[in-house]
Amino acid sequence: xxxxxxxxxxxxxxxxxxxxxxxxxxxxxxxxxxxxxxxxxxxxxxxxxxxxxxxxxxxxxxxxxxxxxxxxxxxxxxxxxxxxxxxxxxxxxxxxxxxxxxxxxxxxxxxxxxxxxxxxxxxxxxxxxxxxxxxxxxxxxxxxxxxxxxxxxxxxxxxxxxxxxxxxxxxxxxxxxxxxxxxxxxxxxxxxxxxxxxxxxxxxxxxxxxxxxxxxxxxxxxxxxxxxxxxxxxxxxxxxxxxxxxxxxxxxxxxxxxxxxxxxxxxxxxxxxxxxxxxx
Length: 280
Fold this sequence. Notes:
mainly alpha, 2 domains
């Protein structure tokens, strides 16, 4: 189970992220949009765990068969046939193909998969897929197909809610900033917390705002982190309570971990992958 947000998902998040306070009625979507087939596209580069210069012909042939089986399982367009052609050739040609030749077909197949997702998707899927196609890297293709497309589909269904990393919102030096700058920051954090409907942080920020400038400054240095962490845990529990078996299992892993980064990664992308799995 992966909760680190890949670069391609960051691209998708950057495009999709609406103002947290903006609420839109979910548009009508068809079953193909809300219940896609879910499987993971493997990074074939990770599958090559032998030294192709020193491995035996049998080991090389076994690797080629494994890659071909994976390509077939993912319904890739050209790779299965190219692997078969290499398997039908000499051991030397197969070894050479596995060193580099297969990557061209694989990259084409991933681009085709993104285009297929784009063709079947709504406006957010199409726009996010175009960003990935313009990027053109294998990493972006994999991240979109394995994660980003589910966020885009949720946005098209009106079900996407993104949680800000409040730590990144603190862009002033709390030791040297003026009282006015500190107060403005607290109000910005409170507005975001209210927009996300967090449970405890808005009230705690208000209490700090009602206190002295020194107390507010102290609270913004570290005190708010406890309330924010509690609110993220509550959000994960709420998603878990309303979710199907895959959401519940994934949320439990996150709750057992208990760190803010894992809470955010789950709420901002892992949840949507798990929901797609439950839909299927």
